[in-house]
Write a structure and sequence with these properties.
This protein is of the alpha/beta class. 38% of the residues lie in helices and 12% in strands. It has helices spanning 2-29, 41-50, 71-78, 83-90, 98-103, 146-155, 162-170, 181-187, 191-201, 214-217, 220-226, 254-270, 296-299, 304-307, 394-423; strands at residues 67-70, 136-140, 172-176, 204-206, 233-237, 280-285, 315-322, 348-354, 368-369, 375-376, 389-391.
């Protein structure tokens, strides 16, 4: 019996060593991921060739209609083998992919190697999430104003040359909250420093501004300045009615929240605050159930004909971008009147814009599809514009999935090898003296 157990252990060890070697060999032959706006043939072929029966993607995978991701997020998910970034792009779910979620469970966003990039000097990349120097931006319903601060660091970033100085001088940010200043100071511990930095950068901070009645609640001096310089972007993150228990956005309040979105979009148009040439309305929101049932892309355009004669034919849904919090430090999503944050790895920025934006000054945050299947960003002569965005495809999700499964297998093989090596100390067992 003892000989049989020893033989079985030897066979298991040989099988484990063989598996680890094959995985390591495969990883060494993987090509570097492409950062073009469209995955290359090599990118799409790699996951198909490497996939095994146990690693096969369980259908259906994430709904990918008009879905984009930042090339930076994709690079982090693949080259850094960053688990939070993999989940941002692929939104792996236990119900859809039990194999992956058990082997590679999601990790806290702080584990992303880019999460430490929070100092003002490391931020402010022109074009991040479509925000560019020279823009006029209005943020509404910003809980602790950290998203507004992230935008301010982009718009008012220290210029490197005279041209950037000119763009910076034209930048404008009006950051607003639905609450009063005193209420915000009581709820959020560090909001005083946030407000101070916003104002020192050149932003205007306004309180008690209603997203469904913007023109009626903005201060008079802000409205007067807007008459000559309309907003290029109006942004509301996680539009939702506040619930005392903290269970925001559940099915009971779904219809109310849908109407909230309709009113916000309609009011932004009816108030004539949005630039008629370069204007966009952006809404960041979660996409997992029950939030995917809101159908923001269609609900946002409902009611425009009734209130804004014919505008529904002019405004359109452009697409959505997988949100990467590390691109917008120091932003932390928070519930209404609550200093606690919440998970948002499944969140996307929904973009609404005017039809036919090719050639405009700031272009469109979402790339414009060309006849050859490629994408065109905001094509400014000085090279400024949105960061590279990539179309999220089934092949991209499969590739990211395979990279992380392979990395997990390598770790498991290394841990098993280490355990075997440490057990016997590498030498012969001493005979016990009788």
């Amino acid at each position: 019996m003892a000989k049989k157990r020893k033989r079985d252990r030897r066979q298991q060890q040989q099988a484990g060593d063989s598996t680890g070697a094959s995985i390591t060999a495969k990883e060494s032959n993987d090509a570097e991921p492409s950062l073009s706006t469209k995955p290359t043939a090599a990118d799409t072929a790699a996951p198909a060739a490497a996939a095994t029966t146990s690693h096969a993607v369980t259908q259906p995978c994430r709904e990918r209609s008009r879905l984009y991701t930042s090339a930076i997020t994709y690079q982090c998910a693949t080259q850094n083998v960053c688990i939070p970034c993999a989940y941002k792009i692929c939104t792996f779910d236990v119900a859809l992919d039990t194999v992956f979620t058990k082997m590679v469970p999601n990790a806290r966003p702080e584990s992303c190697p880019r999460s430490a990039t929070t100092s003002p000097t490391e931020c402010g990349q022109d074009g991040t999430m479509g925000y560019q120097r020279g823009m006029s931006v209005l943020t509404v319903g910003d809980g602790d104003l950290t998203f507004s601060l992230a935008v301010a660091r982009i718009l008012f970033a220290a210029p490197r040359n005279q041209q950037e100085q000119q763009h910076r001088n034209c930048s404008r940010l009006v950051a607003t909250s639905y609450e009063s200043r005193d209420t915000l100071l009581n709820v959020y511990p560090n909001i005083g420093e946030t407000i101070q930095e916003l104002e020192s950068l050149g932003a205007t901070v306004c309180y008690q501004v209603d997203a469904t009645n913007i023109a009626g609640t903005l201060p008079e001096d802000v409205l007067k300045s807007t008459s000559s310089k309309k907003f290029n972007r109006i942004t509301w993150n996680f539009p939702c009615s506040a619930i005392g228990s903290g269970q925001d956005g559940q099915n009971d309040a779904m219809e109310f929240n849908k109407q909230l979105i309709r009113d916000f979009v309609c009011n932004s148009i009816a108030s004539k605050l949005l630039d008629k040439k370069d204007g966009e309305i952006d809404m960041l929101h979660k996409t997992k159930p029950p939030f995917n049932q809101w159908q923001i892309e269609s609900v946002a355009l409902e009611g425009l004909d009734a209130e804004c004669k014919g505008t529904k034919d002019e405004l359109e849904y452009k697409g959505r971008i997988a949100f990467d919090r590390c691109l917008m430090p120091p932003y932390v999503p928070r519930k209404a009147l609550d200093k606690k944050s919440f998970t948002c790895h499944d969140a996307c920025t929904y973009v609404l814009g005017w039809k036919g934006e090719r050639g405009k000054r700031f272009g469109c945050t979402i790339p414009i599809p060309l006849e050859d299947g490629k994408n065109e960003g905001a094509g400014q002569e000085d090279g400024r514009g949105p960061e590279p965005l990539m179309v999220v495809t089934e092949d991209m999700i499969a590739k990211i999935r395979q990279i992380h499964l392979d990395a997990k297998m390598v770790k498991m093989a290394a841990a098993a090898a280490g355990g075997r090596g440490g057990k016997g100390g590498g030498g012969k067992k001493k005979r016990r003296r009788k």
